[in-house]
Design brief:
Layout lengths: L5 E3 L5 E3 L58 E5 L3 E6 L2 E6 L20 E5 L2 E4 L11 H4 L8 E3 L15 H4 L3 E8 L2 E8 L11 E8 L3 E9 L3 E11 L2 H7 L7 E4 L4 E7 L7 E4 L8 E2 L7 E13 L2 E9 L3
Antiparallel strand pairs: 1-2, 3-4, 4-5, 5-6, 6-7, 8-13, 9-10, 10-11, 11-12, 12-19, 13-18, 14-15, 15-19, 16-18, 17-18
Length: 324
């Protein structure tokens, strides 16, 4: 599990992808060496003699079992019930697709982050998870859908967590399907679900497809159904004070650039142009924040595209990588 969330930076230092809560008891560094301990065995070839943190507890563990990780043409794909990780050349995407299904027990993650994902390019953060500052007054804010890279209809999430007591359990039962394809020049990951059908008890099918290529990542959202809705598309980017203060007024209708992480971000709708709302450490509304350590917060970039539109609707967002 620890290996699943490790990413190498440009200088080959290991970093832990932060999704959801950060423990108030210890920093993420405390578990960085766990995949390299004899207990893990996944990275036995890279076993470290000088272990730190929890890994030191298992330094004398011995086991002959081995686990293989398949690597096909610079592509590694790992899936389990609630998480998926795709490594394609210099890109790493980690997706969370936990849902309340069939009354099965699920982890008490309790973040509205279904369909959200984090993205790294050459070990650099691009799309982020904003974390959770604490378990006090800011808790609901940091766990809300507006603090994740996801889609909402009438401000509601596609999947409700078990702690949403306002709905009968039958309403919380949803279905979703995953599909991953590897072609010679790209990898695509697709989630199709009926979670939005709760909104008016009509059938609404949402399909999100992420396409990884050499120099671009496409995020395609297709929502099929009937009725008119307020539709929000949220994206969370890592922030940079010096860049943002200089260029926060330079965003255009179709595209803006974030040179501090080497990307441009472009949207394509099958309708009239929509100007994005950009938030960076805002107080009202309180958007554009993240928490890297329990009890602290720092500025980040929240990009919001909001519109009122009758279904069906299809949108496409493209992240292009430029030279830093």
């Amino acid at each position: 599990a620890c290996n699943f969330f490790l990413v190498k930076s440009q200088n080959n230092d290991l970093q832990m992808v932060l999704i959801g809560d950060v423990s108030p008891d210890c920093t993420p560094d405390w578990i960085l060496d766990l995949p390299f301990s004899p207990l893990a065995q996944i990275y036995q070839k890279n076993y470290k003699k000088d272990l730190s943190g929890w890994a030191k507890l298992f330094s004398d563990f011995k086991d002959t079992n081995k686990v293989k990780v398949n690597n096909y043409q610079n592509t590694i794909i790992q899936n389990n019930r609630h998480w998926s990780r795709i490594e394609y050349k210099n890109l790493i995407c980690i997706f969370h697709h936990e849902a309340f299904q069939n009354n099965d027990p699920i982890a008490s993650h309790a973040h509205d982050d279904f369909l959200s994902f984090v993205l790294f390019h050459n070990g650099e953060e691009i799309l982020i998870d904003t974390g959770r500052k604490d378990y006090g007054s800011s808790s609901k804010l940091f766990t809300s859908n507006s603090y994740h890279s996801t889609v909402t209809l009438n401000d509601k999430s596609a999947m409700y967590q078990r702690n949403k007591k306002i709905y009968y359990p039958e309403y919380l039962k949803r279905e979703y399907f995953l599909k991953c394809e590897r072609k010679f020049d790209k990898v695509s990951f697709e989630i199709e679900h009926n979670g939005f059908s709760l909104k008016n008890l009509q059938k609404i099918i949402h399909k999100r497809k992420i396409i990884l290529k050499d120099k671009t990542v496409d995020i395609v959202d297709e929502i099929n159904g009937n009725g008119k809705y307020k539709i929000n598309y949220f994206y969370q980017f890592s922030g940079n004070d010096s860049y943002f203060e200089k260029s926060k007024d330079d965003f255009v209708q179709d595209q803006f650039t974030l040179p501090h992480i080497g990307i441009s971000f472009k949207k394509i709708f099958n309708e009239k142009k929509i100007i994005p709302n950009i938030f960076y450490g805002n107080k009202k509304p309180r958007l554009g924040w993240r928490s890297l350590q329990y009890g602290t917060e720092s500025k980040a970039i929240t990009c919001l595209f909001s519109l009122k539109r009758s279904l069906p609707i299809k949108s496409k967002f493209t992240i292009s990588f430029t030279d830093l």
